[in-house]
Amino acid sequence: MHGPRHARNSELRDNAMHVRAAARPVFACIIAARVLKNNTPAPPSSVSRSPTRSGVIALIALSFIWGYTWVVQKEGLRFAAPFDYGALRAIPSALILFGAMILTRRPLRLPSPGRTLLFGLFQTTGFIAFTNWALLAGGVGKTAILVYTMPFWTLLIAWPVLGERVRGLQWLAVALAGAGLILVLEPWHLGGTVASKVLALAGGICWAASAIVAKHWRRREHYDLMAVTAWQMLLGGIGLGIIAWLVPSHPVHWTPYFGWLLAFMIVFSTATGWFLWLFILSRLPAGIAGLSMMAVPVLGTLFSRLQLGERPGGSELAGIAVIAAGLALLTWATRRDDAGGDGNARVDAPSEIKRRNDIPV
Description:
Layout: H1 4-38, H2 53-76, H3 82-103, H4 113-137, H5 140-147, H6 150-162, H7 169-185, H8 194-220, H9 225-246, H10 256-283, H11 286-292, H12 295-308, H13 314-340, H14 350-356
Helix pairs in contact: 1-3, 1-10, 2-10, 2-12, 3-4, 3-9, 3-10, 4-8, 4-9, 5-8, 5-12, 5-13, 6-8, 7-13, 11-14
């Protein structure tokens, strides 16, 4: 039998573990605030055209973090329902951003409450809810690539809403995306995980809608990116919490492993990822950064195969490849059109959309 001393030692170890877990977001907040303070993105004209070593290293690190995030997100759903998991991720991440704002002496004022709330409902509530829900029944690889169809939906939504025409090779990119979607969705097989695929597409559409809201907002007034990101994440996280409260689900199963998964999502995927993205944009041209981010769903597929043993079928793999090709073509075509400078309205490339908005991971 174990005596009182053993019980006391066990209690001390548990307490130490909880203290370390609670301290991680604080340390991440301090480090991220220093990064933001010392590496605020420069205007586009002043960004170096040649990639710097630190920017490339940060880009590689971020691609791997966000790629592996899809596996962590899938694993966490074993312990918490989709909406609970989303709220547990979004609200603490927002608090870390607020902490960074305090440390960098940025104003905490809520910018344009109505627009921020609408942005948060699309970017955080809708995006995270649909993505988690899709991952509950669907595979990581196909969910990631379907969510990353966001730029194509942005093109189609921006045409009637913002009056921005789809041009030239962008039409070919949209056609490739459509063909890839047919291969991934497999409408000739209506059983299985069709629902999860539709939910993943809904997540991508929510992401696209948030980009349209942000761009429409940017046309009318300037806003502080960090303040908007923190507030929309908090408001969207509260929205997720309300949904979690209203929708019956199993209680959260708290374990050390789930605590690690949640800490990864909060500290690395959201808070650190957001600051790394700002650092990258201060070191690399936005076109290179945006095109390189297309590696994220590919890495997610690779990690899910290595850790979760997921093996997409031939049709799904072909669809993923075609959609990835369409994303690359869309980014290249839009950057080429922007360089042409003919003055016509254009839809932002995925890199520009990400540059102006928060990180949807």
